[in-house]
Amino acid sequence: MTRDVFIFKPETVQEILVNATRALGATMEYHEARLQAELLLAHALETTRALLLARLDETMSPERAARYAANVARRAQHEPLAYILCHAEFYELDFVVDRRTLIPRHETETLVELALAAARAAPVIVDVGTGSGAIALALAHNLPHAQILATDISPDALAVAQINAARLELESRVKFRQGDLLEPVVERFDVLASNLPYIPSQRFAELPREIRAFEPRVALEGGEDGLAVMRRLLAQLGRHAARGAVAFLEISEEQGKSAVELARQTLPRAAVTLHRDMEGLDRVIEIELGDAGE
Questions:
Q1: CA-to-CA distance for 61 and 9, rounded, in angstroms?
Q2: Are the CB atoms for 151 and 184 separated by under 8 Å?
Q3: Disulfide check for 161: which of 8, 133, 183, 288 has CB 3.0–4.6 Å away?
């Protein structure tokens, strides 16, 4: 698909919306195509989808229509909508996202809920592999007195996270540090939350094109069994944890049993619990370290 989907002459918003929906309908169901065409059009017109209906009879300039057509073409080539719109909602907060970071997912909100419940009186909270900063900033927004540290090995990802911290007026509440897993953290944590790469290498090629072709592979692929990065983090937990610390690690839905076994083998004195997400799928392992961190 190319930009010549549209005839670049003055057309009404309604006509252009119909053309865009038809173009996107080649790659998705009609109702999804219509929704995404509307979201992209609202973005092009610098308005909201709710207000778009009042503007359907307006004439759209060729220049603005061309920019809209380019974005429709990007979406038809499976580029994620969040990257085109440059934002994604997570835990009722709006985040800037681009190809430097993973797009925050709804299922990761389970991780945030569990961390929040455990962190009400916790002085030091760490988000490992922060990416866009979604987990750390959601926690900071809801825990005004907590000290939150966020690490990432990617300086590009940290740049996006810092943009989000400034936009959400939370830059004084979260300290961002570059480095591998817990290496840049000198403090002992009370609560740790982490969404590490967990896609097995052999499954990467099977992911939908909009994931494998656009989102950063380093934030997705977790080695042969999908647990390679988690394995390294588990080995670091003991020497970085305060007494009574707890860690929450997101997993893929088929990894529940193997992730629990790995955690128990690595930290035999810890209590390990498996939690499911809103869809009833295995999603988070909770590791109560007790005195295992001493």
A1: 8
A2: yes
A3: 133
Q: What's the confidence (pLDDT) of residue 9?
A: 52
Task: Give the per-residue pLDDT at 8.
Answer: 44
* Among the listed residues 216, 186, 221, the one whose alpha carbon sits nearest the alpha carbon of residue 206: 221
> Taking the CB of residue 97, how many other CB atoms lie within 10 A of it?
25
**SS3 readout for 215-274:** CCHHHCECCCCCCHHHHHHHHHHHHHEEEEEEEEEECCCCCHHHHHHHHHHHCCCCEEEE
Name residues of the chain where pLDDT drops below 50.
1-8
Q: What is the C-alpha R_g of the chain? A: 21
Secondary structure (DSSP) of 135-178: HHHHHHHH-TT-EEEEEES-HHHHHHHHHHHHHTT-TTTEEEEE
- Whether the pTM exceeds 0.70: the reply is yes
DSSP state of 199: B
What pLDDT score was predicted for residue 293? 54
Residue identified by tokens 């936009």 is: 167
Domains in the chain, please, with CATH?
3-77 (1.10.8), 99-290 (3.40.50.150)
Say which DSSP state 94 is in: E
